[in-house]
Amino acid sequence: MNQDDIIVQHLARTPRLRVAMVTETFPPEVNGVAMTLGRMVSGLLARGHSIQLVRPRQGSTDVASQEEHFQETLAPGVPIPRYGGLRFGLPLQSRLGQIWSSSRPDLVHVATEGPLGWSAVAAARKLKLPVTSGFHTNFDHYSRHYGFGWLKKPVAGYLKRFHNRTAATFVPTAEMARDLGGQGYTNLQVLARGVDRQLFDPARRSEALRQEWQVAPEQLAVLVVSRLAPEKNLHLALRAFQAIREVRPDARLILVGDGPARKSLSQSWPQAHFAGMRSGEDLASHYASGDLFLFPSLTETFGNVTLEAMSSGLPVVAYRSAAAAEVIEDGHSGLLAEPGREQDFIAAARRLAADPALRRRLGRAARERVEPIDWECIHDRLESAFFHIVRRHQRLPGQENHFLQIVPD
Q1: Are residues 93 and 189 in the same domain?
Q2: Are residues 97 and 126 in the same domain?
Q3: Which of 225, 272, 282, 316 is least buried, going by the fewest C-beta atoms within 10 A?
Q4: Which segments of 82-220 are extended strands (E)?
Q5: Is 399 part of any domain?
């Protein structure tokens, strides 16, 4: 056992990190980044660490939490165009410098790359604090879906400069680490996402809910859980559902989520059931009450919904990308199509709809596959990574040794 391992083990027994986390989105906002950050904060707090969260104010009545180990600093923000409910935090470098000078964190973690995030990296570097980042969203891929395709290269360049200014960038998959590494990103570390298997459980299946969907016990409920937005490739899901109806005329499409494309989708598909935004046990019941899950997106960095569907015992049809590429074994725990091969995706959906035995087998295997992908394991890896980064930073010449002293047992 080397010295770093001894340090990490000792600190894990007596955790005492002071972590400043900066993000443009956080619960109760509903999206993958907010959910992941909420989980990270909860996991660190449960391990005894202190968190200072910096985020945009979410409304006029929003009040910053001030608890013993969890304090919030609210930043001004502006709405993100065509992305209702989310805001860019405005730069806050001077204020963050003052806050972190008087109450110095051991590490700053910046989760989002907006103006608030950039100013946080600048403030941390000026104070010679170790700073890490998270790559959660392919903003450069999104640009073409919102009429800003000409910005793809500048946005990609900005993202690389942003993350390469930090000591480590956490990415959710090995595939993304290889992709970003090939683009010139440095200091990449893979930190996957977990799933709450107690919440997302096949036992939450509800016939009463299926009746609300107007789906009889013998009918096929085809489920999509997604932000209803252009970048989610939902028109492919609709085409796949049309193919499903050729072999299962009684099939019903259930879309869970909300977003700017909801109006146009509901006009195009009035026969589908639009369940709106769901969360907690209600969302878990929606998953478990479906029979087949479609995930057509190609813009995800991970895709938390893939794990949630699998944990709920649903057979998944997805592209071999993001989380699906890492956790689904084609033909065993789901069906995969190569990215961009739309006809293969549609054929897989049709095949699964036509074969009840295959759906049952893949659903059981999917549930088993996510058993070891637990949030507690992810939090252990995050904590360990933070400890190592703090200790490595302290060894750099000229760094202030402000971290609590380690007393040998």
Answers
A1: yes
A2: yes
A3: 282
A4: 87-89, 107-110, 131-134, 168-171, 188-190
A5: no
